[in-house]
Amino acid sequence: MATTNKRDYYEVLGVDKNASQEDIKKAYRKKAKECHPDLHPNDKEAEARFRELNEANEVLSDAEKRARYDQFGFNDPMNGAGGYDAGGFGGFGGFGDMGGFSSIFDQLFGGAGMGGSRGRANAPQQGNDLRYDLRISFEEAVFGCEKSFEFYRSELCDDCHGTGAKPGTQPVTCSVCKGTGQVRVQSGFMTTIRTCSACGGAGKVIKDRCAKCGGSGRVKRKRTATIKVPAGIDNGQTIVMNGQGEPGLNGGPNGDLYIVITVKPHKLFRRDGTTLYLDMPISFPTAALGGEIDIPTLKGAIKYTVPEGTQNGTEFRLRGKGVPQVRSSYTGDLIVRVRVEVPTKLSDKQKELLRQFDGASTGKEYKERKTFLDKMKDLFN
Q: From the centroid of its chain, how far is CA 290?
Protein backbone atom coordinates (compact mmCIF):
# COMPACT_ATOMS: atom_id res chain seq x y z
CA MET A 1 0.00 0.00 0.00
CA ALA A 2 1.36 3.41 -0.95
CA THR A 3 2.11 5.89 1.80
CA THR A 4 1.79 9.67 1.91
CA ASN A 5 3.04 12.36 4.23
CA LYS A 6 -0.18 14.35 3.93
CA ARG A 7 -2.05 15.29 7.07
CA ASP A 8 -5.48 13.85 7.70
CA TYR A 9 -8.09 16.06 6.02
CA TYR A 10 -10.23 16.27 9.18
CA GLU A 11 -7.15 17.39 11.13
CA VAL A 12 -6.37 20.03 8.49
CA LEU A 13 -9.83 21.57 8.86
CA GLY A 14 -9.92 21.04 12.61
CA VAL A 15 -13.23 19.15 12.63
CA ASP A 16 -14.44 15.83 13.94
CA LYS A 17 -14.99 12.91 11.55
CA ASN A 18 -18.71 13.14 12.31
CA ALA A 19 -18.84 16.85 11.44
CA SER A 20 -21.77 18.02 9.34
CA GLN A 21 -21.32 19.64 5.95
CA GLU A 22 -22.19 23.00 7.52
CA ASP A 23 -19.46 22.51 10.16
CA ILE A 24 -16.95 21.69 7.43
CA LYS A 25 -17.94 24.76 5.44
CA LYS A 26 -17.61 27.07 8.46
CA ALA A 27 -14.25 25.60 9.49
CA TYR A 28 -12.92 25.95 5.96
CA ARG A 29 -13.97 29.59 5.60
CA LYS A 30 -12.47 30.53 8.96
CA LYS A 31 -9.11 28.84 8.42
CA ALA A 32 -8.77 29.85 4.78
CA LYS A 33 -9.27 33.51 5.64
CA GLU A 34 -6.50 33.27 8.23
CA CYS A 35 -3.91 32.17 5.66
CA HIS A 36 -5.28 33.66 2.43
CA PRO A 37 -2.37 34.76 0.20
CA ASP A 38 -3.87 38.22 -0.29
CA LEU A 39 -3.38 38.81 3.43
CA HIS A 40 0.06 37.19 3.57
CA PRO A 41 1.91 38.26 0.41
CA ASN A 42 5.18 36.40 -0.30
CA ASP A 43 4.53 34.04 2.62
CA LYS A 44 5.27 30.55 1.31
CA GLU A 45 4.03 28.85 4.50
CA ALA A 46 0.66 30.60 4.24
CA GLU A 47 0.45 29.61 0.58
CA ALA A 48 1.16 25.98 1.47
CA ARG A 49 -1.48 26.01 4.23
CA PHE A 50 -3.97 27.54 1.83
CA ARG A 51 -3.31 24.76 -0.70
CA GLU A 52 -3.68 22.12 2.01
CA LEU A 53 -6.98 23.60 3.25
CA ASN A 54 -8.46 23.72 -0.23
CA GLU A 55 -7.47 20.14 -0.96
CA ALA A 56 -9.07 18.95 2.28
CA ASN A 57 -12.22 20.96 1.66
CA GLU A 58 -12.45 19.75 -1.95
CA VAL A 59 -12.75 16.18 -0.68
CA LEU A 60 -14.72 16.56 2.55
CA SER A 61 -17.30 18.96 1.09
CA ASP A 62 -18.21 16.38 -1.58
CA ALA A 63 -20.35 13.59 -0.11
CA GLU A 64 -19.10 10.94 -2.57
CA LYS A 65 -15.42 11.85 -2.23
CA ARG A 66 -15.76 12.05 1.54
CA ALA A 67 -17.29 8.60 1.73
CA ARG A 68 -14.43 7.14 -0.33
CA TYR A 69 -11.88 9.00 1.79
CA ASP A 70 -13.45 7.66 5.01
CA GLN A 71 -13.20 4.14 3.58
CA PHE A 72 -9.84 4.18 1.79
CA GLY A 73 -8.00 7.23 3.15
CA PHE A 74 -5.38 8.48 0.71
CA ASN A 75 -5.27 5.13 -1.10
CA ASP A 76 -8.57 5.45 -2.90
CA PRO A 77 -8.33 3.10 -5.92
CA MET A 78 -10.46 5.52 -7.98
CA ASN A 79 -7.81 8.25 -7.57
CA GLY A 80 -4.69 6.13 -7.80
CA ALA A 81 -2.36 5.28 -4.94
CA GLY A 82 -1.08 8.18 -2.92
CA GLY A 83 -3.92 10.65 -2.69
CA TYR A 84 -6.55 12.80 -4.31
CA ASP A 85 -6.25 15.16 -7.18
CA ALA A 86 -8.62 17.54 -5.38
CA GLY A 87 -10.02 18.99 -8.54
CA GLY A 88 -6.60 19.77 -9.96
CA PHE A 89 -5.73 22.24 -7.22
CA GLY A 90 -2.49 20.61 -6.19
CA GLY A 91 -0.96 21.25 -9.58
CA PHE A 92 -1.50 24.94 -10.07
CA GLY A 93 1.75 26.78 -10.13
CA GLY A 94 1.00 30.07 -8.45
CA PHE A 95 -1.72 32.51 -7.54
CA GLY A 96 -1.30 34.26 -10.86
CA ASP A 97 -2.73 31.20 -12.58
CA MET A 98 -6.39 32.11 -12.25
CA GLY A 99 -7.53 29.14 -14.27
CA GLY A 100 -7.06 26.80 -11.33
CA PHE A 101 -7.60 29.43 -8.66
CA SER A 102 -10.87 31.09 -9.64
CA SER A 103 -13.17 28.24 -8.63
CA ILE A 104 -11.47 27.94 -5.25
CA PHE A 105 -11.63 31.70 -4.72
CA ASP A 106 -15.33 31.64 -5.62
CA GLN A 107 -15.95 28.84 -3.15
CA LEU A 108 -14.21 30.68 -0.34
CA PHE A 109 -15.13 34.29 -1.07
CA GLY A 110 -17.88 34.00 -3.63
CA GLY A 111 -16.04 35.56 -6.54
CA ALA A 112 -16.87 39.03 -5.23
CA GLY A 113 -13.50 40.05 -3.89
CA MET A 114 -12.50 38.94 -0.41
CA GLY A 115 -16.06 38.36 0.72
CA GLY A 116 -19.52 37.55 -0.54
CA SER A 117 -21.04 34.32 -1.79
CA ARG A 118 -22.14 33.37 -5.25
CA GLY A 119 -25.18 31.16 -5.50
CA ARG A 120 -28.81 31.36 -6.38
CA ALA A 121 -30.24 34.75 -7.32
CA ASN A 122 -31.23 36.94 -4.37
CA ALA A 123 -29.49 34.65 -1.87
CA PRO A 124 -27.83 36.42 1.09
CA GLN A 125 -24.26 37.34 0.20
CA GLN A 126 -21.51 38.23 2.64
CA GLY A 127 -19.91 41.63 2.04
CA ASN A 128 -16.37 42.12 0.78
CA ASP A 129 -13.48 42.02 3.23
CA LEU A 130 -11.24 45.10 3.30
CA ARG A 131 -7.55 45.62 4.01
CA TYR A 132 -5.91 48.63 5.67
CA ASP A 133 -2.13 49.02 6.13
CA LEU A 134 -1.38 50.68 9.48
CA ARG A 135 2.10 52.07 10.15
CA ILE A 136 3.14 52.37 13.81
CA SER A 137 6.34 53.23 15.66
CA PHE A 138 8.72 50.67 17.16
CA GLU A 139 7.71 51.68 20.67
CA GLU A 140 3.98 51.45 19.86
CA ALA A 141 4.50 47.90 18.64
CA VAL A 142 6.42 46.91 21.78
CA PHE A 143 4.17 48.53 24.40
CA GLY A 144 0.84 48.50 22.55
CA CYS A 145 -1.31 51.50 21.73
CA GLU A 146 -4.70 52.69 20.58
CA LYS A 147 -4.89 53.98 17.02
CA SER A 148 -7.63 55.68 15.03
CA PHE A 149 -7.57 55.76 11.25
CA GLU A 150 -9.81 56.63 8.32
CA PHE A 151 -10.69 54.29 5.47
CA TYR A 152 -13.18 54.11 2.64
CA ARG A 153 -15.75 51.41 2.03
CA SER A 154 -18.70 50.89 -0.28
CA GLU A 155 -22.00 51.12 1.59
CA LEU A 156 -25.65 50.83 0.63
CA CYS A 157 -27.00 53.90 -1.14
CA ASP A 158 -29.34 55.94 1.06
CA ASP A 159 -31.56 56.95 -1.86
CA CYS A 160 -32.32 53.50 -3.26
CA HIS A 161 -31.45 51.45 -0.15
CA GLY A 162 -29.14 49.25 -2.16
CA THR A 163 -31.56 48.24 -4.92
CA GLY A 164 -29.87 50.39 -7.56
CA ALA A 165 -33.27 51.49 -8.85
CA LYS A 166 -34.57 55.03 -8.98
CA PRO A 167 -36.42 55.99 -5.76
CA GLY A 168 -40.06 55.03 -6.09
CA THR A 169 -39.26 52.12 -8.45
CA GLN A 170 -38.04 48.59 -7.98
CA PRO A 171 -35.93 46.17 -10.05
CA VAL A 172 -38.06 43.80 -12.13
CA THR A 173 -37.69 40.07 -12.54
CA CYS A 174 -35.42 39.17 -15.45
CA SER A 175 -37.49 37.91 -18.37
CA VAL A 176 -34.65 35.74 -19.69
CA CYS A 177 -33.88 33.62 -16.61
CA LYS A 178 -37.24 34.20 -14.86
CA GLY A 179 -35.44 35.42 -11.75
CA THR A 180 -33.15 32.40 -11.28
CA GLY A 181 -29.99 34.16 -12.41
CA GLN A 182 -29.06 31.15 -14.55
CA VAL A 183 -29.90 29.81 -17.98
CA ARG A 184 -29.70 26.28 -19.36
CA VAL A 185 -27.97 25.79 -22.69
CA GLN A 186 -28.64 22.57 -24.62
CA SER A 187 -25.86 21.37 -26.93
CA GLY A 188 -26.58 17.92 -28.33
CA PHE A 189 -26.81 15.51 -25.42
CA MET A 190 -25.14 17.94 -23.04
CA THR A 191 -26.86 20.58 -20.95
CA THR A 192 -24.82 23.32 -19.29
CA ILE A 193 -25.92 25.92 -16.80
CA ARG A 194 -24.54 29.44 -17.25
CA THR A 195 -24.93 32.78 -15.53
CA CYS A 196 -27.65 34.80 -17.19
CA SER A 197 -26.02 37.48 -19.34
CA ALA A 198 -29.13 39.68 -19.28
CA CYS A 199 -29.10 40.28 -15.52
CA GLY A 200 -25.55 39.18 -14.64
CA GLY A 201 -26.91 36.46 -12.36
CA ALA A 202 -28.88 38.86 -10.18
CA GLY A 203 -32.24 37.56 -11.34
CA LYS A 204 -33.51 41.14 -11.59
CA VAL A 205 -33.12 43.98 -14.08
CA ILE A 206 -33.08 47.70 -13.25
CA LYS A 207 -35.21 49.74 -15.66
CA ASP A 208 -34.57 53.19 -14.13
CA ARG A 209 -31.22 53.57 -12.37
CA CYS A 210 -30.69 55.51 -9.17
CA ALA A 211 -29.01 58.84 -9.97
CA LYS A 212 -26.93 58.88 -6.78
CA CYS A 213 -25.24 55.49 -7.13
CA GLY A 214 -25.63 54.98 -10.90
CA GLY A 215 -27.51 51.75 -10.37
CA SER A 216 -24.79 49.99 -8.38
CA GLY A 217 -26.69 50.30 -5.10
CA ARG A 218 -23.42 51.35 -3.42
CA VAL A 219 -21.61 54.60 -2.63
CA LYS A 220 -18.12 55.18 -1.21
CA ARG A 221 -18.00 56.60 2.29
CA LYS A 222 -15.18 57.61 4.60
CA ARG A 223 -15.25 55.84 7.96
CA THR A 224 -13.16 56.09 11.13
CA ALA A 225 -12.12 53.03 13.11
CA THR A 226 -10.27 52.74 16.40
CA ILE A 227 -8.33 49.64 17.40
CA LYS A 228 -6.25 48.55 20.34
CA VAL A 229 -2.88 47.31 19.13
CA PRO A 230 -1.66 44.61 21.56
CA ALA A 231 1.79 44.94 23.13
CA GLY A 232 4.38 42.86 21.30
CA ILE A 233 2.77 42.88 17.85
CA ASP A 234 5.29 42.43 15.06
CA ASN A 235 5.77 43.72 11.56
CA GLY A 236 3.41 42.05 9.05
CA GLN A 237 0.95 40.71 11.62
CA THR A 238 -2.78 41.30 11.12
CA ILE A 239 -5.59 42.49 13.36
CA VAL A 240 -9.13 41.57 12.27
CA MET A 241 -12.14 43.79 12.96
CA ASN A 242 -15.12 41.53 12.40
CA GLY A 243 -18.07 43.05 10.58
CA GLN A 244 -16.25 46.26 9.63
CA GLY A 245 -15.94 45.36 5.95
CA GLU A 246 -18.47 46.15 3.26
CA PRO A 247 -22.17 45.39 3.84
CA GLY A 248 -23.56 42.17 2.42
CA LEU A 249 -26.32 41.84 -0.17
CA ASN A 250 -29.83 40.57 0.35
CA GLY A 251 -29.46 40.58 4.11
CA GLY A 252 -26.04 38.92 4.11
CA PRO A 253 -23.51 39.74 6.86
CA ASN A 254 -20.83 42.40 6.58
CA GLY A 255 -17.32 41.45 5.58
CA ASP A 256 -14.32 41.96 7.87
CA LEU A 257 -11.64 44.65 8.02
CA TYR A 258 -8.06 43.35 8.08
CA ILE A 259 -5.48 45.76 9.51
CA VAL A 260 -1.96 44.78 8.43
CA ILE A 261 0.71 46.21 10.73
CA THR A 262 3.90 47.85 9.47
CA VAL A 263 6.44 48.71 12.18
CA LYS A 264 8.95 51.53 11.65
CA PRO A 265 12.57 50.53 12.32
CA HIS A 266 14.33 51.80 15.46
CA LYS A 267 17.51 53.87 15.43
CA LEU A 268 19.26 51.71 18.04
CA PHE A 269 17.48 48.41 18.48
CA ARG A 270 16.92 45.47 16.15
CA ARG A 271 14.13 43.00 16.88
CA ASP A 272 13.83 39.27 16.32
CA GLY A 273 10.57 38.00 17.80
CA THR A 274 10.65 38.90 21.49
CA THR A 275 14.43 39.45 21.58
CA LEU A 276 16.04 42.87 21.15
CA TYR A 277 19.62 43.38 19.94
CA LEU A 278 21.82 46.40 20.62
CA ASP A 279 25.38 47.19 19.44
CA MET A 280 27.02 49.10 22.30
CA PRO A 281 30.28 51.01 21.71
CA ILE A 282 32.68 51.23 24.68
CA SER A 283 36.16 52.71 25.01
CA PHE A 284 39.35 50.66 25.04
CA PRO A 285 40.17 51.57 28.66
CA THR A 286 36.68 50.51 29.79
CA ALA A 287 37.03 47.20 27.98
CA ALA A 288 40.50 46.61 29.44
CA LEU A 289 39.95 47.83 32.99
CA GLY A 290 36.24 47.23 33.34
CA GLY A 291 33.77 49.82 34.49
CA GLU A 292 30.20 50.97 34.74
CA ILE A 293 28.34 52.04 31.59
CA ASP A 294 24.82 53.27 30.80
CA ILE A 295 22.92 50.87 28.53
CA PRO A 296 19.80 52.23 26.82
CA THR A 297 16.61 50.17 26.97
CA LEU A 298 13.11 50.89 25.71
CA LYS A 299 12.20 51.94 29.27
CA GLY A 300 15.23 54.14 29.92
CA ALA A 301 18.97 53.72 30.57
CA ILE A 302 20.25 51.26 33.17
CA LYS A 303 23.66 50.87 34.83
CA TYR A 304 25.75 47.85 33.88
CA THR A 305 29.23 46.86 35.03
CA VAL A 306 31.50 45.68 32.22
CA PRO A 307 34.01 43.12 33.54
CA GLU A 308 37.74 43.63 33.18
CA GLY A 309 39.20 42.33 29.91
CA THR A 310 35.98 42.46 27.92
CA GLN A 311 36.66 41.60 24.27
CA ASN A 312 35.17 43.14 21.15
CA GLY A 313 32.00 41.28 20.15
CA THR A 314 31.24 40.03 23.68
CA GLU A 315 27.49 39.70 24.29
CA PHE A 316 25.64 40.43 27.52
CA ARG A 317 22.04 39.26 28.08
CA LEU A 318 19.67 41.49 30.04
CA ARG A 319 16.72 39.36 31.10
CA GLY A 320 13.23 40.76 30.63
CA LYS A 321 14.40 43.90 28.81
CA GLY A 322 13.15 42.79 25.39
CA VAL A 323 9.69 42.63 23.82
CA PRO A 324 6.57 41.19 25.49
CA GLN A 325 4.89 38.25 23.83
CA VAL A 326 1.43 39.13 22.51
CA ARG A 327 -1.27 38.42 25.10
CA SER A 328 1.22 36.74 27.44
CA SER A 329 3.08 37.59 30.65
CA TYR A 330 6.40 36.58 29.07
CA THR A 331 8.91 39.25 28.03
CA GLY A 332 12.00 38.55 25.96
CA ASP A 333 15.60 39.64 26.58
CA LEU A 334 17.93 42.39 25.40
CA ILE A 335 21.20 41.15 23.89
CA VAL A 336 23.95 43.78 24.12
CA ARG A 337 26.90 43.24 21.77
CA VAL A 338 30.03 45.14 22.80
CA ARG A 339 31.93 47.10 20.16
CA VAL A 340 35.34 48.20 21.49
CA GLU A 341 36.04 51.53 19.83
CA VAL A 342 39.60 52.48 18.90
CA PRO A 343 40.21 56.26 19.09
CA THR A 344 40.98 57.95 15.77
CA LYS A 345 42.56 61.15 17.11
CA LEU A 346 45.11 61.13 19.94
CA SER A 347 47.16 63.87 21.53
CA ASP A 348 50.92 63.54 21.76
CA LYS A 349 50.65 62.74 25.45
CA GLN A 350 48.11 59.98 24.80
CA LYS A 351 50.31 58.48 22.11
CA GLU A 352 53.32 58.49 24.40
CA LEU A 353 51.34 56.79 27.18
CA LEU A 354 50.21 54.10 24.75
CA ARG A 355 53.80 53.53 23.60
CA GLN A 356 54.85 53.14 27.22
CA PHE A 357 52.01 50.72 27.79
CA ASP A 358 52.90 48.69 24.70
CA GLY A 359 56.60 48.70 25.62
CA ALA A 360 55.81 47.34 29.06
CA SER A 361 53.73 44.54 27.59
CA THR A 362 54.94 40.95 28.08
CA GLY A 363 52.54 39.52 25.50
CA LYS A 364 50.65 37.55 28.12
CA GLU A 365 48.02 40.25 28.31
CA TYR A 366 46.79 39.35 24.83
CA LYS A 367 45.33 35.86 24.78
CA GLU A 368 44.42 35.77 21.10
CA ARG A 369 47.76 37.30 20.00
CA LYS A 370 49.69 34.74 22.05
CA THR A 371 47.67 31.87 20.52
CA PHE A 372 48.27 33.27 17.04
CA LEU A 373 52.04 33.61 17.58
CA ASP A 374 52.24 30.07 18.91
CA LYS A 375 50.51 28.80 15.77
CA MET A 376 52.94 30.75 13.60
CA LYS A 377 55.88 29.12 15.38
CA ASP A 378 54.40 25.68 14.79
CA LEU A 379 53.85 26.53 11.13
CA PHE A 380 57.47 27.56 10.39
CA ASN A 381 59.27 25.10 12.66
A: 46
Domain boundary among the residues 84, 109, 134 is at: 109
What gap in Å lies between CA 170 and CA 156, rounded to an integer?
15
Do 280 and 378 belong to one domain?
Answer: no
Write the DSSP assignment of 44-90 as a string of letters: HHHHHHHHHHHHHHHHHTSHHHHHHHHHHTT--TTT-TT---GGGGG
Contacts made by residues 346-350, CB under 8 angstroms, sequence distance 24+: none
Q: Does residue 146 contact residue 228 with C-beta atoms inside 8 Å?
A: yes
Q: For residues 141 and 235, give the distance between their C-alpha atoms in angstroms, rounded to a whole number.
A: 8
To the nearest 10 degrees (0 to 180), the angle between helices 44-60 and 21-34 is 170
* Model pLDDT for residues 38-86, shown as the tens digit of each residue: 677 778 888 888 888 888 888 898 888 888 888 777 776 555 444 454 4
Shared-domain flag, residues 36 and 100: yes
Which domain does 39 fall in, by range?
1-109
Q: Average of pLDDT values for 264-270? A: 96
Spatial separation of the C-alpha atoms in residues 306 and 302, rounded to whole Å: 13
The pLDDT, as a whole number, for residue 40 is: 73
Sign of CA dihedral 40, 41, 42, 48: positive
- Residues in contact with 6: Cβ distance below 8 Å, sequence separation at least 6, in sequence order: 52, 74, 83
User: 316-355: per-residue pLDDT in tens?
Assistant: 999 999 999 998 899 999 999 999 998 888 899 988 988 8
How far from the centroid of its chain's Cα atoms is residue 300's Cα?
32
